[in-house]
Amino acid sequence: MTLKNKLLEPGEHFLQGNQALAEGALFAGCNFFAGYPITPASEVLEHLAKRMPQLGRICIQMEDEMASIGTAIGASWAGAKAMTATSGPGFSLMQEFIGYAFMTETPLVIANIQRQGPSTGQATKAAQGDVMQARWGTHGDYMPIVLSPNSPQEMFDLTIRAFNLAEKYRTPVVLLADEIVAHMREKVVIPKACEIEVFERKKPKSKNEPFFGGETIPPMPSVGEGFNVAVTGSTHNEFGVRFTADPEVHRKLAERLVGKICLDAERIFDVETYGIENCDVGIVAYGCISRSVYEVIELAKNKDINVGFVRLKTLWPFPEKFVKILAEKAEFIVVPEMNLKQVFYEVQRVAACEAKVFPLNKVGGGEIITPEEILAKILEVRT
Amino acid sequence: MKVEVRFAGLGGQGMVLAGQILGKAAVFDGLFAVQTQSYGAEARGSAAKSEVVISDKKVWFPFVRKCDVLIALSQQALNKYVEDLKENGVLIMDSGYIKEAPRSFKGKIYSFSFSKIAKEKFGNEIFANVIVLGFLSEILHLVSEESLKKAVIDSVPSKYERENLEAFDLGVEIAKRLKG
Predict the structure, then answer these.
(1) For A151-171, what is each residue's pLDDT tens digit?
(2) How many Cβ contacts (< 8 angstroms) between chains A and B?
(3) Domain ranges of chain A
(4) ipTM score assigned to the predicted complex
(5) What is the pLDDT of residues A39-58, one digit of tens each?
(6) CB B90 within 8 A of CB B68
(7) Domain of B64?
(8) Domain count, chain B
(9) Beta carbons of B23 and A14 less than 8 Å apart
């Protein structure tokens, strides 16, 4: 790519997932990126290190992942649209700061390109093992927004959505991709910049407005604009003043942090469904594995089996509504995933007594679950 | 129409880039293509492979299971992947690196010392990958030659554009000669 000083031309491009993510961030208005290289996310930093200066924006390689997210949080409070990108080991290191971002209601995008863990695991191999870490990784009560792309096109589209959700709900948003989708190259259709919806955060009009309460999603001032902003990770009242002795203050804050996402969950969920109204067998999948499922639908048709499919493009908040419909229609549901039963339990909880839920798991070596393996599982549980 | 192509060799031989160029050319032709890759932790010398699935329909499963075309630039790569080559598939291999031709495979085999000629003509074996692309273009016409050349230009550093186009043309010439 020999682009200079501009966004990608509208039209068809052949892009790597990580490059598409980076280009999507540029369209979303990301003007601050801080990161530390890690396989399989390094291309995001590499690409933005070239592209951000071309567009007069800031990209900085920090000394580690904690410094990266910390800097991004600071930049967000200075009014920037900020992002960092990492993989599992870096995501683990970032957890404390992620909690700080939830507590201080800092808009921020964190891309986690999953590899095999725990710990350093298998650096170059794909996995989907961070689903629950993205939900519960930092301590305390909060509800994260976590998106799951399955193609370079969605790396582009969902990165833009991640920024918009971060700004709209004043919260960190995780783009939870996997090595396969991140390193895959495929056609990406870039729309005209004017056709892309870009959301900007709500700013306060006066010093007297509460920046940490009052409304469900309060306006956010930037430092240096004269609003005398105090920002703390400790329990604070609606004016941001540290207030750790009063249980009522904390209750109100925690309930609002969870509520601002949960009460609007129906607008945040994003799923793709196929044949869920009339199916014998249900499948719930996400990320790279969902690509195998589209082939399973065809293979199963040849055996007179109707597959209903719910693809989770949003992992959290969990799109219960669609899984419930699937559970009511299908006799059983298969949940193929590249971890040892992380979304499986969630599907089981939602399906309750309506449908039997079966896991299909594969970890190690970054091997995708193939359509044949999913079909074999379906045939096995049917008997 | 669906064609699955696998490029395999050692890290540093440009197999990953060759796959990217083929995939990009397919998209230029209005087709669907997915390219994936795998390589070891080392920058050079470990096994590297790049896979391209080209189709006139959306390609969902991104990897090659049984390939129609195998391009092998190392003995190790050939030994590892020849079993996944379809019976009526095509094998293109670098005779400079591959001493033992596969006994099991009965399909069409093209063998040429791509790396050696790259070193002779351009002073560097790294051009073997683009020579192979020219060769592949001439014998199979999976995508248009025009799109492949456009994809080469789009993918290599501009200061090496001329050499790479020459390497591509050389591959086409070699294929013409081998075909007779």
Answers:
(1) 999 999 999 999 999 999 999
(2) 55
(3) 11-195, 272-382
(4) 0.93
(5) 999 999 999 999 999 999 99
(6) yes
(7) 2-112+139-152
(8) 1
(9) yes
